[in-house]
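Reopening closed ticket. The problem is back. First fold of the pair:
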Amino acid sequence: MKHVLLALCIVLSGCKKEEIDNRLIVINFNTQDTLEVERGYVGCGDFWEAKERCVALGEGWRPPTIEELRLMYQQLHLKGKGDFIQESAPKTYWSSTESGGYLAWHFNFETGVAHYYNSPKTTVMNVRAVRALN
């Protein structure tokens, strides 16, 4: 409850607070949703493995939508928060946003661009989990 009230205060005040209690926070000002972003990347895998890795973190954890990845890029990565680019890992992250049965959207944190046209679900990419705080 404390975190929900704190997140609500941040939304109402218009502040773009990136961290609360040492957690990474993203706020969608259009929907008023507040998300916690997993501090470390959950690992690499194809689309289905990525989803399983997020859910395995526990209650409420899931892969982000493509819009949530854009917010993570804008509100965290561009400010040097979140360690989204690892030297030895892909610079791309799976989203939960599908584009038909064979493709899904991903976001490239090196270029800041979202893609689906070359993202078969069998491709290995990073995944970063999120969960709702409100």
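Second fold of the pair, where the issue appears:
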Amino acid sequence: MFKRWLTFKFLLVLLLCALTEEVQACGAAQVVILPAPVSSLSIQAAVNVARLYFSAAACMADEYTINLPAGTFLLGQPPQRSNGAAPLGAIDVSGVLSPNATGKLIINGAGEAENGTTLRLSNDVKVEYGYPTIYGRSAYHVTFQNMHLGAEYPTVSQGRVQSINVSDNSVTLTIPEGFPTPLDLFNATLANPKGRYLRAYTDDAVNPTLVQDVAAGSAALFVDNRQVPWGYVGGTYKAPVPDPSGPNSWRIYINHAAQDMSATGAYAPGRNMICIKAKSYWGGYNFLNSQYVTFNHIIWTEVSRGVFRAGSANNTVMNAAIIRGPAIGGQTPCLSTSDGGPQFGQPGEPTYGNTVLNFTAQATGDDSVAFFDDEGGTGLTPQPAQSVIENLDIENSFARFVLVSTSPGLGRPNFIIRTPITVVGCDELALGINGCPITYYPGL
């Protein structure tokens, strides 16, 4: 074991030396090409060399590109940070550039399509360590582009209703071959019940869609097909168990079977496909006190939630998409991910100057886009640009198309399909109908 560790350290030193040799003197665009296969270790080594390069004031106006090869690569356990502390992400871009730099770090793939660059977060990192794919604290002027980001295994499941069991507050689902069991999903065995829900989608092998149970446009939309919490009864955790009624059958416990699942509604046996969501908390990316971070031409599958908070502002997600993974045994997953999309700010953590542009979200497990306390930089001098949401195509979100909480000035033309919207605190804004800045077309 010790010999293997020495070999690994020696190879890492060789890689660092090779990367350092590629870097030229300040004042010119830098391009570093990573050979296949890439890993958390090799990408992080390249980022660390870039951090060292930008530590010279004369280099802070340069553009520094790390090119990743085409192929599919697994991001395993990342190395310790330079100070010896535990890592916080499979790729950590903290503090590469200062906020007043005019240069940028670009981590560039060979394209987001199937023949481009795919980075998948390993199951060990995702479940055992809880790291996001990308982490940054005080990260400035960093761009990720032209790649597909995902996870090693599916993060959602689904099944067909066999029976609703009011006596023990459970529903029995038959899981299609190849899909995870409820116990396989992340956080399924945690006592904390947050983030575990069921919801009905059409039983379509190619394109399952969120079930709408009443006339489009009605205030009662989705009343029958509500999100049903699972994994606990009466506030006490109760794990799902295999059901003897058939192969791949699972009994999943919920709080109120009779209240939440009508035998003649969306959860009626044999009627629809029931999506099983267990929201993750590790996420696709997590940025704190960061500015001018850009995701451009990115596709996310399996893991997609991104957070910009704790003073983060002026960040961008553009020309990007969250899509369903490939069919399993001929059945398209009803959800693309158990979590949502980009989130800007948090309650009590104001943000400003953010952009979501040309963004597609397909059947996300949580809010496809969220803005909290986006105040447009009120009180700052000079006054920064307000945030922009423009040209969004959102379909079949398990939760909401967009959650806007006390965030004035948001909303441009959007196309929304079978997705409810929640706007918190919008009555104060006097924007659009009923003070809400976004138009909803429920019947499309």
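Update: turned out to be a display glitch only; the data is intact. The radius of gyration is 23 Å. Residues 1-14, 214-222, 423-444 have pLDDT under 50 and may be disordered. Please close again.
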